[in-house]
Specification:
This protein has 234 residues and is mainly α. It is built from nine helices and two strands, in the order αααββαααααα. The longest helix is centred in the middle third of the chain and has 22 residues, at 90-111.
Length: 234
């Protein structure tokens, strides 16, 4: 979770100003975490949270194993909205996921081929192996990888930018996923139900299973989602 909204907002502002004055241009990679944190005089956790905010704004993209790519340095010069860098709460993250992910899996159920489903099953296997090994960190990573694999199967090009925000929000809440083997087992079971519905090309069932999963996530985190219709049954 974001450690301090004041610190993170200050870091975001510093990085936006650096991009705006041309310190890094579109297509450049930002310095490594350690180096950049030292340059800015901040902690690496605060830097990571700031990068998440900049990703949500479409200014950079974190590339696993490679670093942070600058996407749109010119946009950094534009004045942000008053609350654009405000950190999201876990309830905010879950509400975004509840709004988008059921629709995403409904689309995926209509278009996924056997190779796509095989890739989803591989990520579920990683979750199962992590569960059997009692490795909660690996389980959290596999859980995020599963949902990112779902996002990657979205065929609507306009939807891709919105999906990126969902992925960022999911990573932001990752700290809450490292809690107990029982929770990992429940997530695995719920995600397996989603994949079965996708395999059966049952869009309505896939969407319903994803809604149930996100509601269950809220319960595990002690969060009641304020939504118009909770869809109590799959």
């Amino acid at each position: 979770m974001i450690s301090s909204s004041t610190v993170v907002n200050a870091v975001v502002d510093k990085l936006r100003k650096a991009l705006a004055r041309g310190q890094w241009r579109s297509g450049d990679m930002l310095p490594g975490q350690r180096e950049l944190a030292e340059q800015l005089g901040i902690s690496r956790p605060s830097l990571r949270e700031a990068v998440t905010v900049l990703e949500t704004l479409g200014l950079v993209r974190a590339l696993p194993g490679k670093g942070v790519l600058v996407l749109d340095a010119e946009a950094a010069a534009q004045e942000p909205a008053a609350d654009s860098a405000a950190p999201a709460s876990l309830a905010d993250v879950l509400e975004l996921r509840y709004t988008l992910e059921p629709f995403i899996v409904g689309l995926v159920a209509q278009s996924a081929n056997s190779q796509d489903i095989g890739q989803l099953r591989l990520t579920l296997m990683d979750m199962r192996e992590a569960q059997e090994a009692g490795d909660n960190d690996a389980g959290a990573k596999a859980y995020i990888a599963f949902h990112e694999a779902l996002f990657a199967l979205t065929t609507n090009p306009i939807f891709q930018s919105v999906v990126q925000q969902t992925g960022n929000a999911l990573k932001q809440s990752a700290g809450m996923l490292r809690n107990s083997p029982e929770h990992l087992a429940a997530r695995l079971k719920e995600n397996e139900a989603v994949v079965r519905a996708i395999r059966d090309r049952n869009s309505a069932q896939a969407s319903a299973q994803m809604r149930q999963h996100i509601l269950a996530e809220g319960q595990r985190m002690g969060i009641h989602l304020n939504i118009p219709d909770e869809h109590p049954g799959p």
